[in-house]
Amino acid sequence: MARNKGQATIWIILAVLLVGVVILFLSLEREPEKQDVSGGEVSFDVVSFLETCIKPKIIETVDLMLPQGGFLNPKNSIFFNNINIEYVCKNIGYYEPCINQHPMLIKEVEEQIEEQTLEKVVSCLDRMKAELERRGGEVIFDSNAPKYNVELAPDRIFTDIEKKTTVSKDGETRSFDNFRIEIEHPTHNLLTIAGEIAAQEAKYCYFEYVGYSILYPKYEIRKYTMSEPTKIYTIKELNSGIEMNTAIRGCAIPAGF
């Protein structure tokens, strides 16, 4: 009988140890929660909040610009597939190569994105302040208007919002000088290819788009020749399906030749 009781005690101890090991394992596997400035609640990440708020407007803006040659309101353009496409390289005469109309194309696009999305940035800062205060914190902005900059880089859109901000809660304070947001998008890549097309057309009256697509298989480039004559190049990044159009007119031959 004593032996049976001893065995039962051993099994009970083993079971308790097993339960303890399982609980310890689960607690180690759980990722610790980020704490906010109060140290008592799950963190409110101001950068993530601003990214979620601003990103859709930036994507909406570039998705409108790229099919139109990189412009919100094309002024020197041709109508193709129900949209106006800006000429990136054009010569209105005959025989001569086109002249690059936008040698600073990437910079122009950055400035348009900034202008089109600045109002949204200001709105998102106000929304961030309201949400933090709803959670019991205090947000103080400096009196200056935010400085806002958009930078296009390979595979990325970076936005920098310079706005001195102080967040306080439960006696703890965090300060921010600026907020940097990173968005994955091929805008820079597509504009770079459009610039290469313009450079080749301006020099040789021709761009080897088939060979370029073979050399860089992540892109698909097509050419459509209009009656003016104008060439429309479509540049698509295959992974994302995002596409840009660009228009070229140069080395034109008059009718009858």
Radius of gyration: 29 Å
Tell me the domain tally. Answer: 2
What fraction strand? 25-35%
Low-pLDDT residue intervals, each spanning 5 or more residues: 24-42
Number of helices: 5
Mean pLDDT, all residues: 86
Largest sheet features: 6 strands, mixed
Tell me the helix content.
Answer: 40-55%
Secondary-structure element series = HHEEEHEEEEHHEEE
Q: Can you walk through the features of this model?
A:
By secondary structure, this protein is of the alpha+beta class. The protein contains five helices and ten strands, in the order ααβββαββββααβββ. It has helices at about 1-30, 45-65, 105-135, 185-205, 210-215, and strands spanning about 75-80, 85-90, 100, 140, 145-155, 155-170, 170-185, 220-225, 230-235, 245-250. Strands 1, 2, 3, 8, 9 and 10 form a six-stranded mixed β-sheet that branches. It is elongated, with a radius of gyration of 29 Å. It starts with a helix and ends in an 8-residue tail after the last strand. Residues about 25-40 have low confidence and may be disordered.
